[in-house]
Amino acid sequence: MKNPFGNMAGILKQAQAMQEQMAKLQEQAASKTATGTAGGGSVTVTANGAMQIVRVAIDPDVVKSGDVDMLQDLVTVATNDALHKVKDVMDGEMKALTGGLKIPGLF
Fold this sequence. Notes:
The structure is a single chain. The relative contact order is 0.16. β1 (33-38) and β2 form a beta hairpin. This protein has 3 helices and 3 strands, in the order αβββαα. By secondary structure, it is of the alpha+beta class. α1 (8-28) runs antiparallel to α3 (68-98). It has a 3-stranded antiparallel sheet.
């Protein structure tokens, strides 16, 4: 008679290995970056895999224009672009780790 729990040890070992890999991926998240742009590159924002903004660059000509509303919109668009791109990068990393299995609460 086969032991119905015989494969449980193997499953637990795989889960532990995946947990270790996820912890390593989260540690490395800060080193993964993506840059979003707006206004033809007049505003660029870089975000890391931890969803933190790490750099904002604004063309001085945009500032000189004095159009604060436009500048605010450009920063918002570039920030959202960067966050979407870095989320895609991290989703790809997670997909490679989990084999495409969607795990709620992860990235």
